[in-house]
Structure formats: C-alpha cells, structure tokens
Amino acid sequence: MNTTMKRVGRAWVVGASMALLGATIHAALPSQPLQIGEGATLRIAPAPRVKLASGASVNLKWSPALKRAIATSDDVFVAGAATFQQDGHTYFYLVTQEPSRENRGAGYCGAGTEDILRLIEIAKPPLHLIERDKLLLQSCLESIELDDASGASLRKQLESRTDPQHLTLTWSEHPKFGSAPKRVTVRDGRLALE
Fold this sequence. Notes:
4-stranded antiparallel beta sheet, alpha+beta, disordered N terminus
C-alpha cells in the first residue's frame, strides 16, 4: 500500500474519531429515574420511558420539538427531582441546557448555552409527555443569568430543590423579572412567576 493511501486512511480514522468524540461530549447524560407514583419510574434522557411497578417498560409519546430539545442538549434534568400534582394533573419541571449556536464553539456564544425550564405534563391514557410552557432561565445570547453566589452548576442548584411546586429563582438581572426572587407556580397549565 502506498504512503498516500495510508495517510488518507489515518486521516479518515482520526476524523471519524473526532466526530464520534464530539457527538459523545455534547450528548445529554442519561437522566435519573423519576418516581411518578405506584412504583412506576420515568427516565427522560436519552428517550422517555416509564418502568411500571410490574417491571414492564413503556415508551412515551412526545412532541418533535421536545424530542429535538432533549437530543441536542448538553444536559437534561428534572428540577426538584420529583413530580407534583396540581388541579388533577401531574407535572414536572424539565431543565434543558441547549447550545446557543448550532455550530458550537465558533463565533459569539459558540460555546454558550440557553438554559430552559420546561413545564411538562404526564398525560394519560396512553402515557405521553406534553410540554405546557417554558421559561428561559439563562442565556448567553440574551445575557441572562441566575444569581448564584455559591458557583454551583445549574443542575446542582435546581435538581436538589426539595419542593418543585415551590421553586424560587433569582436572576443577577433579568430584562423582565429584575433581580428580586420570583416563585415559579403553575396556573391553568402555564408557568407563572410571583
């Protein structure tokens, strides 16, 4: 085999390895199981599945937009790590950390993220996820950031909250909400900040 062919082969292997590494680095981590009642658990990433108390697994239906958001996110987790009931509906807050730019790493906010709090309803029958509302928590493009003196990651800040129904957020400065603490609530299937 001539030297040129060997170089082309090595370049192809290196290029393929870099592409695979890039995809692995930016893929959302598998989510922790979320208790949804009666011994059933829900796992969001990489795809929503419910494991019933009987041990059977069920794939959930979800919107293409939510599927894309989860697939492209650097991180996906449930704020408060629990579901909550309101007005006969079961909800949870899903946080996605999506890249600010599709071409990651190139140009303004190329390595930045858009962190979104999503209100998700677990509807049945059949079991499916419905995104009811969303709120931009942090944004490189909009220069919005949560105030956190501890320097903890967004996951650490929100996943450990013990009562997701009473989630309080404080921004360094938000164009709409300022810097005063705001309590996130659900009214008629929509997010409200008080």
